[in-house]
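Retro notes (design track)

What went well: tokenization of the new backbones is finally stable.
What didn't: we kept losing track of which sequence belonged to which structure.
Fix going forward: every design gets posted as structure first, then sequence, in one message. First example under the new rule, 233 residues:
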């Protein structure tokens, strides 16, 4: 297991919801500085660095970056957030890979003691059903790894190995918001699909924004957070 680095901001009342911010590939917790600063004015926030990113340890083997162990690493973070109150509500805010991991967590953790209570999906896709498309994605990630700030082994954290997430979307009933830039061409279609499958989700499409919408338009992500918080209340 990799002990992830966590930075805490905002109020410390364990009876109130906490927002867990999970970045994507080749990024770190600081990608959330804008929206997290807005949200932490009134709500607890925990921003994390995924394995091999930021201030978290960098495992040497690819198996540490597979979906199951990474979700287990995040389970430990969530357990820490609920250490003083097992019933504390946890809302997952994920960008790209971080959003995909949030969907995977919501689909695989059905025990209330481990489950999250809401999702804010920023520039997120649901993965692949077609094996050839999946392999093509994985090949591109490995080929592009030389341009990343993380090493080739760490880059495999973005690999896809099955269609569990895309196949299970209709089973999700927790509060969800979708935030996507209208210039994020690679993920607009994915958000159209998510919006169709998650009929209860609120979608925020941001004019003039691209993949890192949380950096250019932090207020839009904060609005997505507010929607989920309002649903929980």
């Amino acid at each position: 297991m990799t002990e992830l680095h966590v930075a805490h901001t905002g109020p410390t009342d364990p009876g109130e919801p906490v927002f867990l911010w999970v970045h994507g590939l080749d990024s770190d917790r600081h990608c959330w500085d804008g929206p997290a600063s807005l949200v932490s004015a009134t709500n607890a926030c925990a921003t994390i660095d995924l394995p091999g990113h930021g201030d978290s340890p960098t495992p040497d083997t690819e198996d540490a970056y597979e979906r199951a162990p990474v979700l287990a690493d995040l389970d430990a973070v969530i357990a820490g957030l609920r250490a003083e109150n097992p019933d504390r509500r946890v809302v997952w805010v994920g960008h790209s890979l971080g959003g995909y991991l949030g969907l995977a967590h919501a689909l695989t953790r059905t025990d209330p003691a481990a489950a999250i209570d809401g999702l804010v999906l920023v520039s997120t896709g649901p993965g692949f059903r077609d094996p050839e498309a999946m392999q093509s994605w994985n090949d591109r990630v490995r080929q592009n790894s030389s341009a990343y700030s993380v090493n080739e082994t760490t880059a495999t954290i973005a690999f896809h190995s099955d269609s569990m997430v895309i196949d299970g979307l209709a089973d999700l009933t927790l509060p969800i918001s979708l935030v996507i830039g209208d210039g994020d061409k690679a993920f607009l279609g994915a958000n159209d699909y998510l919006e169709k499958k998650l009929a209860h989700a609120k979608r925020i499409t941001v004019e003039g924004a691209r993949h890192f919408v949380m950096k250019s338009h932090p207020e839009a992500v904060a609005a997505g957070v507010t929607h989920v918080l309002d649903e929980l209340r």
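Added context from the reviewer: DSSP finds nine helices and seven strands in the chain.
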